[in-house]
Amino acid sequence: MAVNLTTPNPAELLPVAGVRLGVAEAGIRKADRRDLTVIELAAGSRAAGVFTQNRFCAAPVQVCRAHLTTGGIRALVINTGVANAGTGEAGLASAHETCEAVAAKLGIGAEQVLPFSTGVILEPLPVSRLVAGLPRAIADLRADGWFDAAHAIMTTDTLAKAVSRQVQIGGRTVTLTGISKGAGMIRPNMATMLGFLACDAAVSQPLLQALVKEAADLSFNSITVDGDTSTNDSFILIATGQAGNAEIVEVASADYAALRDAVVEVSIALAQAIVRDGEGATKFMSIAVEGGRDRDECRKVAYAVGHSPLVKTAFFASDPNLGRILAAIGYAGIDDLDVSRLRVWLGNPQESVLVAEYGGRAASYREEAGARIMKHAELTVRIDLARGDAAATVWTCDFSYDYVKINADYRS
Amino acid sequence: MAVNLTTPNPAELLPVAGVRLGVAEAGIRKADRRDLTVIELAAGSRAAGVFTQNRFCAAPVQVCRAHLTTGGIRALVINTGVANAGTGEAGLASAHETCEAVAAKLGIGAEQVLPFSTGVILEPLPVSRLVAGLPRAIADLRADGWFDAAHAIMTTDTLAKAVSRQVQIGGRTVTLTGISKGAGMIRPNMATMLGFLACDAAVSQPLLQALVKEAADLSFNSITVDGDTSTNDSFILIATGQAGNAEIVEVASADYAALRDAVVEVSIALAQAIVRDGEGATKFMSIAVEGGRDRDECRKVAYAVGHSPLVKTAFFASDPNLGRILAAIGYAGIDDLDVSRLRVWLGNPQESVLVAEYGGRAASYREEAGARIMKHAELTVRIDLARGDAAATVWTCDFSYDYVKINADYRS
């Protein structure tokens, strides 16, 4: 029951020069499903990543962080079924063994491999089955492997998530293709949001590093389904440098701005796809906060509204329950918020109405208007704090019977 | 479906010398239900309170704060049905009008009255109906009115909540009786947790002030159902001074310690009753965190676990899902937490087992033990952070289909 999300069209997923992808059935946790993906990068590619802030970060996340400091990344290996999280020293050894096996088969160094795992926590990674599956995944490597890879990294996602864009940079066509997985930060034990975005632009390592942080902040770090943060969340940005553009080295350049806009656009589409496929989601909600003193306080307010089970169940019921929205704004943690100045609008793609001002319901607001707007599956709560120029948007979904059903019934 | 909570026994609710309570049907929002309560305090009584931190605090909360600064409180007036929150200047005027009407009838000053409202937000308080009901509530004033008052302050609570205790202080018997309402911080629009605790001890105003804060911190501020904070939450501690004990003026005295322990005990019982009657609750969960550097970080961890919808749905399913608990601890916001040192136990009143250590599942843990423990309705998650001497406990309930049903179906 994903909200306005469909399976990607394979014909619209564009190969990225310098990137080949292969998948295999390795039987990591269940038989007869593709659960192993290898992404090979041409020599000269650059990679940068951002990872979960969870203190229980998984073994592969620790290895990724270490390997990214040396650079020269040439391959990514992703398994589903087991997250290799909460697995202590043995888990770290398994992640290293995985990298060594990939490196040996591709003739590169183990430190040039980034490992990713997603699936149940607290279970040992069956590394021998993973290694046994590698030759098949590597034999499958091809430039048009994005569609299959988008499926092979799924756990309990209901739909694969993949997006391509092209943009002109320095007179050259730069192609970006990305895939993501996750049904809202989390799925039961099947935790984890993963995002992989590759482009063929030439861009310096420091700019790539800055760009992955900015793009993650505006996309994957601006979504929430239930406030739970996984142990394995990872977002990797790859630039193979094969588009032929002059290497982008200046932040203050038109080329960087063009690349930045394209990367952010694809990242947001991949992140929103996770919310649209959120557990039990029937509504896609944008919480847009403006007029804040800084971005941080706008995010605080947006997350307070986006996390509130009361707001989310009201949206599930298509109930324009203003009291719940105002209460969430009120406890967001802005101590000197002047509630008499703030204004709130409810909207959908067709219309938007002012619902609250002067610390209460707007005089012009009619319940019928609220009820009409709430019938749509795409909803916006716009909040003007009226105390500054900063803004931030958070995307989330509603909270339905199915959320409880999925998370209570599921037993891995 | 409250968890181990029953209607109070009227015979066990003890009158407190100097306190009389009366209720009436005022038709605030619905006919044929008691929705108006007046609590009269003898001259010389002292009162202290703590209130919601929500920036959208209700009009009566603002009036209470102002009236408590002048002292000499002689009456409390509580209405259900309408919260008088998000009502702007008109709401403030209604709260003042309520106080003036009570004052005129009791021959006291309006600033000696504390008003409380609970019910739907964003609706105007029908102050004329409230005032018209006052003579009947005042005619009903009696020392044994606690049981009826506990019922009259309910909104969508399924059970009334009231507790009495007696304690010896300075050779005199001090009686404490308290009532509370709330089905977990919140009920749909029927937001609000209210707690009123009266004793007949003689205690100085500064100590009473300190005691209400400490008791709230250890009770009402240590519970959560869904993380939402109401606009009207209030907890009032009253001391009528009629027990005949020498006035308690020293924190470092046996008398203060005895009063403190009794007040905290009653406050915790009243607060836990709210969780036990939590929306859709089937399990009562204690999240006990120890070994923290300070109480604040212990509370952070306890609330992260207690708020996690993934943990709460797992408990609903009686699923000892350790991965979800560890993940919640990991994202609680302690940046330098060493997960390899922390230990986690799952328990019920009969037994407790170590389930996690060294960053993963405890070697001695068996799924059967976890499943056996989880079958109980009273569960404890004990977490040792192993980095200090501080501790904190938070009480919460599980997250069931009925929570969504109650909050999605409800339309005020």
Total of helices of chain A: 11
Per CATH, which architecture of the largest domain in chain A? 4-Layer Sandwich
CATH superfamily of the largest domain in chain A: L-amino peptidase D-ALA esterase/amidase
Tell me the number of strands of chain A: 16
Please write the CATH class name of the largest domain in chain A. Alpha Beta
CATH topology heading of the largest domain in chain A: L-amino peptidase D-ALA esterase/amidase
Mean pLDDT of chain A: 91
**Parts with pLDDT < 50 across at least 5 consecutive residues of chain A:** 185-190
Rg calculated over all Cα atoms of chain A: 22 Å
Fraction of residues in helix of chain A:
25-40%
Q: Give the quaternary arrangement of the chains.
A: homodimer
Q: Return the domain count of chain A.
A: 2
Secondary-structure content class of chain A: alpha+beta
Would you give an account of this structure?
- Two copies of one chain form a homodimer.
- With 412 residues, chain A is of the alpha+beta class.
- The first copy, chain A, folds into two domains: 10-276, L-amino peptidase D-ALA esterase/amidase; 284-409, Ubiquitin-like (UB roll).
- Helix content of chain A is 33%, strand content 25%.
- The longest helix of chain A has 23 residues, at 254-276.
- The radius of gyration of chain A is 22 Å and the shape is globular.
- The two termini of chain A are 22 Å apart.
- Mean pLDDT of chain A is 91; it is low at 185-190.
